[in-house]
């Protein structure tokens, strides 16, 4: 074959491949986000992220909106409908659009025209024209007239039955959808009443004085403290604390102070970092004054970390102090000393997922801690603590011994430290493989491949697997929740301002796993971490109730879509004074919160 022909063939094949790919791309684009029932972000370039030129609107047709700021005067007038009903219709229409389009592959046929906000295109899903689907279901409007009167009437009846309220993030008050105070508020979210924070207050003007906390349509919170004797557990309900502070009113903070106050000889603390909460600091100072020895281990990076600005205050209180700085290994120095535990008088251990910060101690984040009265378990933690205090961190530590199946009054407890004990591969994955009824996981992250694979297999053999992950961390590069969702495992991304910061797994009314270790490769193989496996029926049932309560509060649409952690979708995030998505901008300065 001559050279020219070869070159031609090569170019021709490349050409074909290019067009095949273009064709494929143009014809199967995934819907990433529903902005309104007729406006979406569609992944045209296949990078799974919404880009600037990927906002698409249907031509000539609109729908309803739950946004109380939208001007619906004419629509209300022409159809003789109260605004309240239109907002409820908006809620239904948005939900319908999510169910029909979100995460689905669609065909996009551009009309060639653009508006200032979007490119106009018709959408085809499962071989059907989306606009036609919208019309058939009563959600399409043209010139303020519903396009299918019969279907519209049915949806209107449904909408009237919804219990819609408007929550003002700033003062935690909720309103009827047509309340002028709701409209005047800058920072609101449209919710079903049962999704409200339990402590939200009804607006007296529009809702009267009798719809407060005794209203059973607001989901009643479940107990957050359980256990007695030698093991107690404390959980924080982040759906109820929409702003962090330094008040120490959470059950977790109060219990930490109480335990410090009861200590007479030693407090050993292995903590990731320190942000001042005066009640805890005062309690530690008093302990020191009465002669208690305080020993401390933290991560190296803490003095520079803006989230933990008060490390000097805690190191000043410590009689002995060490970080995981390793002069011979930058790598080991960069691994995290991620524990959050305290040992009181060498016989009681407090441990869990909570960091010593405003967002942790105030109960703004969802965390779990346990307190264990057991000399045996305290000794295991003390050995680990003293290894770190002597300068052995991360891969330089010794594997644990006598750490399994420790019998307490009503529980059997095993203790694992990272990275030496390889808790995910050796303990968590086998437990997942043995699960029979359910596995519920409230967690900050899930990036561990082996764990994700085991969960998918569990789901396939009929185990009820449910996962709640944090909104901020759902954008992480290695997150496995997309893979899990694709394999049919229900994963909800939480939509509250505080972080879902637990690292917990509950199995079959039998096992509860919790601690500082994230379900990640770093958590298992690099960082200093601790994890508890607790075999106790009451414990597991208690935690299961909490999980189900949070699960119900998070709308089903977050089974499919992820969330901007700092946006009106994330309840409270635009008024909490926190940089929820770590982009350096807070509340109304953040693009996600701008109206
Ligand atoms: Zn009101």
Please, could you describe this protein's structure?
The protein has 595 residues and is α+β, with helices and mostly antiparallel strands. It folds into 3 domains: 29-154, Beta Barrel (OB fold (Dihydrolipoamide Acetyltransferase, E2P)), CATH 2.40.50; 164-207, no CATH class; 225-559, Endonuclease Chain A (Endonuclease, Chain A). Helices cover 31% and strands 22% of the residues. It contains 18 helices and 28 strands. Helix 3 (83-101) crosses helix 5 and helix 8 (251-261) runs parallel beside helix 9 (278-289). The protein is globular. 45% of the residues are buried. Zinc ion (ZN) binds at residues 175-176, 179, 181-182, 203, 205-206.
Spatial extent as radius of gyration: 27 Å
Helix percentage range: 25-40%
Low-confidence stretches: none
So, the CATH homologous superfamily of the largest domain? Answer: Endonuclease Chain A
Overall body shape: globular
Count of individual domains: 3
Strands of the largest sheet, in order across it?
13-14-20-19-18-15-16-17
The amount of beta strand, in percent, is 15-25%
Q: Strand pairing plus helix content: what structural class?
A: alpha+beta
